[in-house]
Specification:
The complex is a heterodimer of chains A (about 280) and B (about 300).
Chain A (H helix, E strand, L loop, with lengths): L1 H32 L19 H8 L1 H34 L5 H14 L2 H14 L6 H25 L4 H8 L4 H12 L1 H17 L2 H6 L8 H4 L12 H26 L10
Helix pairs in contact in A: 2-12, 3-6, 3-9, 4-6, 6-9, 7-8, 9-12
Chain B lengths: L4 H8 L12 H29 L9 H4 L7 H8 L1 H33 L4 H16 L2 H11 L6 H5 L8 H4 L1 H25 L4 H9 L4 H29 L3 H6 L10 H11 L3 H31 L1
The chains are: A mainly alpha (about 280), B mainly alpha (about 300).
Amino acid sequence: MSLVRTVLGRIATYVVIALCTAFFALPLLWLLSAPFDASPTYAVRVPEHFTLGSFAEIGRNPYALRSLVNSVLLAGGTMLVVVVAAALAAYALSRVRIPGRDALLYLLLLLSSVVTGTAAMVPIFLLIFQLNLIDSRFGVVLVLSGGLLPAAIFLLKDFIDTIPRSYEESARVFGASPLQILRDIVVPIARPGLATIAVWTVVQVWGSFLTPFILLRDPEKQPAAVLVRTFYTEGGSPNLALISTFSVLYSIPVVLMYLVAWSRYGFRFHGGIKS
Amino acid sequence: LPPAEPEAAVLTRPGPTSDVVGLGRWRAVGFVAPALALIGVFLIFPALWTLYIGATDFRLTGAAAQAPRVVGLDNYARVLRDPSFYRSLWLTLVFVLGSAVIGQNAFGFALAYALRSTRQAVRRGIEALVLLAWILPSSVVAFLWIALLDRDEGTVNVLLGQTPGTAWLIAYPMVGIILFNIWRGTAFSMMLYSAALSSVPPSHLETARLAGSSTAQTLRDVVLPHIRRYALTNTLLITLWTFNDFTPFLLTAGGPNHRSEVVAAYIYNTAIVGGDMGYSGAISLLVLLINLLLALVYLRAARARRSA
C-alpha cells in the first residue's frame, strides 16, 4: 500500500513539475526563434531562413541605439545619485544617534512601498508637469532616486553597522576629518555593500517602465523599455523582427547582472523591494 | 581577560548623544540632508499633495489647467457614484485575488514543495526558468505573452491545433492578465516558501511519514504551522505589488471595451490620457490609503513573525 502511494506520489510530483516547466518555458521560446527568423511572425518555429540581419537592422535604427544609451544614462544617473546620497545618509545614521532614527527609517521604507506605481502616477506626473521637467531625463532620475533611496539607505545602514568603529577612531586621533574618514576608510571597507546597492539600482531602473513612460514623450529621450513599444512597420503592424531582436539585446544586461549577483550573494538579492 | 570587556565597552561607547567618529550632530544632519530632500520632494510631497489634487478640478488643458479651483469633496462624490470606478475596483479585486493571493501563492508553494525532493539539476533548471520570468523587463514579457496568445499563430492556438483560433486577449482579457501575472510573479513566492520549508524540521516530516499520514495530513499538521506566518507576509507583499502593477496595461491597455481595466489602467486612462487630474487624484488617494493599510498590516505581521 505505502509503496504504491510512494510511487503515485512520485509520479504526481513529476507531472506537476513537467506542467510547470512547460508553463514557464513556453512564453520564452519566441525570444529564441523570432530574432533569427528572416520573416518573423508571432509563431514559435525553427527559422526557415536563418538570419542575423535583424541585429544589423537594430544598428541602423537611430532610435533603437539611442534608447539603449538613454537606458544607460537613466540607470547610471540614478545609480550615482542613490549610491552617493544613500552612503552619506547611512553612514551618518549608523554613527550618530539621531533621536527617532529607527522609526524614521521604517517610516521612509513604509512610504516608499506605499507611494509607488499606480498610487504615485498622478501626483508624480503633475509635479513634474508643474516643474516643467516633462521630457527631461534628469527629472526621471530624480523621481526614481526618491523612490529607491529609502530601501538603499536601509540596506546600507545595516551593512555599515557591521563595520567596527576602531579604524575610524584611530584615524580621528591622527586628525582626519569626517569626510576623509568616510572617503579613505569607510568607503573602501563598505565597497561590497555599495556595489550591491549600485547593481540593485541599475536593475530596478533598467526594467522600470511606468515612470519614463508617463514622463518622457520625446522618442529621442525614451529608454529602451518605452521605445520598444513604438516599433511599427510602414504598414502599421508591429515590426516583429525589430521588437524581438531588440528585446533580446535589452534583456541581456539584466540577466547578466542577476547572474553575477546570484553567484556572489545567493538568493538574498532578489528578496528586496521590487518596484 | 574576559571580565574586563564589559568595562571597556562602557568606556568606548559613551552616552547616546555622542559619536565615536566626531561627526557632530550638525554634520550628520548635513550628510542625511541630500537623501531626505529627494525623498521629501519625490515621495512624501506627492503623497500629501494627492490630498489637494483630489480636492480640485485640475485638468491638463483648458481653463482649469491655468487656475484650478478647489471643489471640496465633489471628486469623491463623483468617484463614488461612478460605475466605471466600481467596475475597475471589481476587476482589480479579481485580478489580485486570482493572480496573487491564490495563483502565485499556491503555485509558488506547490513548486517549492515539489522541488524540495527532486534532483539538484532539475531543481536548478526550473528555478532558473521561473526566475527568468520574474527578472525580464516588463515591456519584453508583455510582447512574449502577446505572441503566446496571438490569434493567428500564437503557441497556445498551435498547441490546440487551431490556426487561426481564439484571440485570447480579446475573448478572455481577465483570464489572460491573471495567467500572465501568475507566470510573472510566482518566483518570489517560490523562493520565500522554499526558505520557509527549510525551517520545517526533517524529523517532524519523517515522523509523519512513519505514522502513515497522507500528504494532505502532513501539509496540514506538520508543514502549515511552520509556514503560516511566512504565508501571511508573502500574501500581503504580493497583494501590494500586484495591486500597484502597471504591466497588465501593456497586454490589453484595459480593453477590449474596458473589460480588463484594473485600477492602474483606469487611473492612467483618466489622468494621463483624459487629463482629468482632480478626479484621478481622488482615486489615487483611495489607492494610497489601501496601500497604507496593506503595508501597516504587513509591518505588524512581520514584527509578530520576528518575535515569535
